[in-house]
Amino acid sequence: MSLRLLKKALLRIGFWCLIGVLLLYATFPFYYAIVTSLKPSSALFEVSYWINSPDFSNYAAVLHQASFLRAIANSLMVALCVVTLALFLSVTAAYALGRVKFRGRGTVLMMVLGVSMFPQVAVLSGLFEVIRALGLYNTSWALILSYTIFTLPFTVWVLTTFMGQLPHELEEAAIMDGASPWVTLTRVLLPLLWPALVTTGLLAFIAAWNEFLFALTFTLTDAQRTVPVAIALISGGSPHELPWGLLMAASVLVTVPLVILVLIFQRRIVSGLTTGALKG
To answer: Are 249 and 162 part of one and the same domain?
Structure first.
């Protein structure tokens, strides 16, 4: 009996040690970025893992750059527009694909999933020509259009899965009461989809907030650039001349909002993910 208890205790200790290693691996880069951002320029290349006297000069320098603040506003506006468009289009598409039976529904879902398999660089030139033909180059709408195109397959697929798992009795009762499909979707089914909407919306927001390749290609001026491009343009000559303190401060400033959002909506995210993993 004692040997069994010892074995169980060792397994538990090993499990928590593994969790600690994974946690350290995941959080240490962000922690070191914070430490680096709080160092003065003279101490950037001194290896230390703790700050005794934090220096906020890097944050002050970044926040005093009008172009960086404008980039944050651009990223926020683009990400919110992408989330709004993606969720609206995805909910309506998911209702048709998850609740309406028609021939070729599986084929449509496979086509939606297949679109997401193309890497960004493979469609970059073609999408650039489309955006230029539409007169959207160097505008926020170029980013909103391109981000929405690449976000929709994921959101449609996830919301279709959730929509298909909702009880059909709810929809039948609404139809018996004379509700139209739009009323059934917005008044009956949509309130039950909040965990899925929060999960997919937050992931779509993060993807739009962090996207770099399209933002670099489809924008040209500081008035339209987003945060990832603005950070990339903070550069110097050789690696030793790069303003690492400013880079780390800017990275922390744009990462903290995402961390806060995840912490605020973590229960709904977990609920959405676990609900989508179950059937019934």
So the answer is: yes
DSSP for 205-273 reads: HHHHHH--HHHHHH--STTT--HHHHHHT---SSGGGS-HHHHHHHHHHHHHHHHHHHHHTHHHHHHHH
Q: How many domains does the chain have?
A: 2
Count of H-run helices and E-run strands, the chain: 13, 0
- Structure tokens that stand for 120 in this block: 């960004």
Q: Which domain holds residue 180?
A: 61-276
CATH number at residue 96: 1.10.3720.10
**pLDDT tens digits for range 76-106:** 999 999 999 999 999 888 888 877 777 877 7
20 — phi, psi (to 5°)? -65, -40
The segments of the chain whose pLDDT lies below 50 read 237-238, 276-280
Q: How far apart are CA 176 and CA 172, in angstroms?
A: 6
Whether the CB-CB separation of 245 and 39 falls below 8 Å is answered with yes
In a domain, 52, yes or no: no
Structural tokens at position 99: 């609740």
Do the Cβ atoms of 53 and 38 come closer than 8 Å? no
Task: Kindly report, residue by residue over 111-158, the tens digit of the pLDDT.
Answer: 877 777 778 888 888 899 999 999 999 999 999 999 998 898 888 888
